[in-house]
Input
Amino acid sequence: EVQLVESGGGLVQPGGSLRLSCAASGFIGSNYYIDWVRQAPGGGLEWVANVRQDGHDTNYVDSVRGRFTISRDNAKNSLYLQMNSLRVEDTAVYYCIAAITFMGGRYWLDSWGPGTLVTVSP
Amino acid sequence: IQLTQSPSSLSASVGDRVTITCRASQGISSFLAWYQQKPGKAPDLLIYAASTLQNGVPSRFSGSGSGTDFTLTISSLQPEDFATYYCQHLNSYPFTFGQGTRLEIK
Output
């Protein structure tokens, strides 16, 4: 069973930067995606970005493209979400998800971390 | 692609049969998932590919639909089912979610 743990959340001022980490443990297999989903306080879910396990396919929602970057360190079995030029509207709990189940040509988001809170405020 | 869930909230009793719908703004084949989220917790995947039950999910949950119209059905509500439910499409990027349906105890 895969377990994911996010870290690196906290309070940052508008325009600042933060790097979130996602550490995976357990058997994750050789083909998967890692997705990031966020949830503003009291709000719904928003898909943010994902990366294929080999790092060669990355995708972002328009609102973060050019400001957020996914990177990975396979030696540490970790993945990072670098967030620059942060805005108040980026305030949310950020979830890291391992999309392992493959069916119908898609990797389904089946293993979620507990999330880490990012607060962007003056 | 926009996903619209209905209703936004729902009151029901233990033992009731409940149906939540998710409508896509354009056809998404069967690239739809359903999640359950309880307060303060991460969402759990219930159903993927529109109708496939995730391992460990009780059989009272079922999903159906393709194209633009999808449903999540709970055949007999249990106390632990009171939560918020979200649909999400994986047809094309970005993988948007519906706005959620809050299921409350009547």
